[in-house]
Hints:
Elements lengths: L15 H15 L9 H7 L9 H16 L9 H20 L4 H14 L3 H11 L5 H30 L1 H22 L11 H14 L1 H29 L7 H16 L1 H11 L1 H20 L5 H27 L6 H61 L1
Helix pairs in contact: 1-6, 1-7, 1-8, 3-5, 3-15, 4-5, 4-8, 6-7, 6-15, 7-8, 7-11, 7-12, 7-14, 9-15, 10-11, 10-14, 10-15, 11-14, 12-13, 12-14, 13-14, 13-15
Amino acid sequence: MSxxxxxxxQHPHYSRATLWLLATxxxxxxxxxxxNQPLLDDFRASFxxxxxxxxxxxxxxxxxxxxxxxFLAPLGDRFDRRLLILxxxxxxxxxxxxxxxxxxxVVLIAASLAIGVVATIAQQxxxxxxxxxxxxxxxxxxxxxxxxxxLGILLARTVSGxxxxxxxxxxxxxxxxxxxxxxxxxxxxxxxKSRPTSTLPYGKLLVSMWHLxxxxxxxxxxxxxxxxxxxxxxxxxxVLTLLLAGEPFHLxxxxxxLFGIVGAAGALAAPLAGKSADRRGPRAVISLSIAxxxxxxxxxxxxxxxxAGLVIxxxxxxxxxxxxxxxxxxxxxxxxPEARSRVNTVYMVAYFIGxxxxxVVASLAWHAFGWTGVCLAGLAAVGLxxxxxxxxxxxxxxxxG
Length: 401
């Protein structure tokens, strides 16, 4: 039986308060995979003998997130999401303690991988919002929860940079332990239980994602497009700290973190993007989003020595990437209502693999070709998204014809 009520009133937990609670859960949990990005220069200072491995910290976190989504997020179709969230919060607290106390960079990388795996709590919150919402409001519901998630992503850099500036990078992870405990208390007190939609054993639950990907070309196209867009996003954010640390800026991690406040424009645009996808269809929003991200990297290419140019580019980049994300998720949640966690897993695994690859490419491009190479790499990722989106539109038109 479907868990989606035809009207909001038929589900006792569909309300603005519940949506914003899910948004808070998503934002607080997902912030943990972005705390390390403004800290790369601090890591390099703490572990000078392993400086060449610094780029592995954000890459390991994002790969861990992809791993956690594949093996943990599908359980939302099978079990109560509230219980899953509480179990992951406990594991997240332990991983954060390990990161805060890491004696070597290798230990920090291992702890970062673990943080990524269990921080997939957000991937229970977003499908839950789609489950609660009626079809006509699904884009808005997803956009509301995603706004919290995106604020977590962006403001994580601001909080991390500020705390590291005054208390050191280890205090960033310590503060997150406290936030994780508080979040667990809120979940126990306020979060309703979800209604499982599948009785498949765990192994078959995982295998079914392969079949979902094979049977849904729209899911494959959305996954490739989303992964390429997030690769572009990560290419910029992974090296921003390094750019600001050098000539002519000489700025520390706090300055890099403040760019997260600028990027919060993307989070504020998320509910609007969801409403637009409800009214006009998500494909049109995605086309515009791809164009915006391409423009952002052109702006970046001419702003390697300009704070004002970087600020403008960040606003355009984040609005474009986040609008595309909302629209893609609105599309995929309509493909298989009984398997929203698994459909979301297929999409988000591709999404964060793209992000991890973007971090690696950014590091290589920065060391080999500098800021110009980073911008060209970002444009290449946007080009891949455009090709995927175009092929999907042509395929859809062919099927209709």
